[in-house]
Amino acid sequence: MRRVTLRRPRLPRTRRGQRRLVQAVMAGCVLALSPSAWMYTTTGDRLRTADEVPRTDVAVVFGAGLWDGEPSPYLAHRLDAAAELYRRGRVEVVLVTGDNSREDYDEPDAMRGYLTRHGVPDGRIVSDYAGFDTWDSCVRAKKIFGVDEAVLISQGFHIRRAVALCGAAGIESYGVGVDAVHDATWYYGGAREILAAGKAALDAVFRPDPRFLGPREPGVERALGEAG
C-alpha cells in the first residue's frame, strides 16, 4: 500500500507575500464578524429589562425546545418572563411561536399550557404553529398576525438577533433578555449565534418568504379586542 503524506501549507517567504496573507486573514475576520457587528449596531438601544420595557400590546415568545412534551428550562424562563409582563400589565397578548412540523412535537401548545398554568388567560394567548426559525416567526408575526409593535422575549445570546430580524420584517420591537444558567447549552447557543448572525444578515437583505406563510389570521386582533 502506498503511503500518502500530507504536505504542510507553505507560508510566504517574502515580506510582500506575508503582508498579503495577513491582510487576507484580517479581511476574512472582518467579513465573519460584520454580521454580529450589524446586529449590535441595529439593536443597541432596543434591549430593556422587564422593569424598563415600554408598555406594548403584544409580547412574542420564541420556541426553545421541549423536554418530554413540556417546555425546556430555557423556554420556561422565556415564558415566565412573558407571564410576569402580563401580570404587571405591560402586555395584553402573548404570541407564542414555535415548531409544530410533526404531530408528536408541538411547541406552541406546550407554551400555551405553561402560560395558562402561570396565570395568563387562554384567550390572551395566540399560537403560531409555523415559527420554524427566528426569521419565519418575525415575518409571520407581521404578515399573518398583523403585529406592528412587540416586546420580544428570549435568552440574552439570542435576543439581539430576534430584535434585528423583527425590525427587518417591519416590527418595531424591544427585546427582553432573560437570565440563563451558563451551562453547556448556553455556551453552545452563544457560539451558534456567530454562525446564525450570517444567516440573519442574509435574511434581512434578501427577505425570503417563510417556509410556510398561509392566510392572514385574526388571532392577535381578536385577543386585543377581548382585552379592551
Automatic annotation (TrEMBL):
CDD domains xrefs: YdcF-like
All copies of domain DUF218, residue ranges: 57-173
UniProt organism field: Streptomyces dubilierae
Protein name: ElyC/SanA/YdcF family protein
Keywords: Membrane, Transmembrane, Transmembrane helix
Source organism superkingdom: Bacteria
Chain segments annotated as transmembrane: 21-40
Any Pfam family hit: DUF218
